[in-house]
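Long-time lurker, first post. I've been practising inverse folding by hand and with some scripts of my own, and I keep getting stuck on stretches where the structure tokens seem ambiguous. Below is the full token string for one chain I'm working on. Before anyone asks, I'm not after the true native sequence, just a reasonable design that respects the backbone. If someone could post their per-position residues I'd love to compare against what I wrote down in my notebook.
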């Protein structure tokens, strides 16, 4: 993979999620999904309300855009790390919203061995590699939505790159090997998070920063309310913008210090060609007057961290 020469992150006022998502979708100019299978990865890691998990309105808005773009099959796949996936999806409204949109729902931790594709450990920080759900590997396109959160269990931030951990098996269904125990105990945790994204494609990632956690996370923390939604076809660019947004509000020492593109998740993703190589290659685009001042400050923070 080769990093793109430049990428845009679009930012819009979030007072109306449905209008915001529709505007972002058309601004990005995604190719038609006519007749295609689209996999959707939301953020249902725990049985906690937004901003710990995807807001019901955000999921409904995204599934509606995918459907209206002509997708023949829509598959919402999820694996909760802090709860039983099926129950989390039911309790957070994901199952009902997907049904209304005509989307299939798959609790990934119930997949048989054939539902997983093995990624070998070659060149990775994973001792045995890992298993990624074929649902995402074999889809014609993947759409994801993440939240704006810090991560107190070693991830430092939980944005679009971290969101893809939910596409990986917690345990090997064959021998029971615990991939998540390895991830969370490794000094390379943040690099390992980035490495997952090398093997999970993503056509567009949408970050709901209507509210967020500036400390704590992923299921609870200090709440902030930026009231914006961000979107990009580039997960590295999106996460760098998300980190700038957290810095604007004040966050943990791990988030506030140093160059944004030197942070482990971002740096490793750049090495793997997942996204832009520097803040200079990232363009922030405010789509309305309400978000313009915030975007200017995010740009300043990005420039100062180079």
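-- Answer (accepted) --
I ran through it position by position. Result:
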């Amino acid at each position: 993979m080769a990093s793109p020469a430049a990428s845009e992150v679009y930012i819009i006022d979030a007072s109306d999620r449905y209008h915001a998502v529709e505007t972002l979708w058309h601004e990005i100019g995604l190719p038609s999904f006519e007749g295609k299978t689209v996999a959707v990865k939301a953020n249902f890691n725990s049985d906690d309300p937004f901003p710990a998990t995807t807001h019901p309105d955000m999921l409904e808005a995204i599934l509606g855009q995918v459907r209206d773009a002509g997708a023949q099959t829509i598959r919402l796949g999820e694996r909760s790390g802090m709860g039983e996936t099926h129950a989390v999806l039911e309790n957070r409204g994901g199952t009902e919203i997907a049904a209304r949109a005509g989307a299939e729902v798959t609790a990934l931790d119930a997949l048989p061995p054939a539902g997983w594709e093995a990624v070998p450990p070659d060149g990775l920080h994973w001792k045995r590699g890992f298993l990624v759900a074929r649902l995402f590997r074999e889809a014609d396109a993947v759409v994801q939505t993440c939240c704006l959160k810090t991560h107190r269990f070693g991830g430092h931030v939980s944005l679009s790159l971290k969101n893809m951990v939910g596409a990986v098996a917690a345990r090997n269904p064959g021998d029971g090997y615990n991939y998540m125990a390895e991830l969370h105990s490794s000094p390379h945790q943040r690099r390992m998070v980035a490495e997952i994204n090398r093997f999970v494609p993503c056509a567009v990632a949408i970050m709901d920063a209507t509210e967020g956690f500036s400390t704590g996370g992923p299921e609870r923390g200090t709440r902030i309310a930026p009231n914006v939604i961000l979107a990009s076809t580039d997960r590295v660019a999106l996460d760098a913008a998300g980190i700038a947004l957290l810095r604007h509000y004040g966050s943990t020492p791990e988030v506030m210090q140093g160059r944004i593109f030197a942070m482990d998740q971002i740096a490793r993703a750049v090495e793997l060609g997942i996204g832009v190589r520097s803040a200079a290659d990232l363009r922030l685009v405010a789509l309305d007057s309400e978000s313009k001042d915030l975007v200017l400050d995010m740009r300043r923070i990005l420039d100062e961290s180079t």
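A couple of notes from the structure itself: The chain has a mean pLDDT of 97. The chain is about 35% helix and 25% strand. Happy to go over any region you disagree with.
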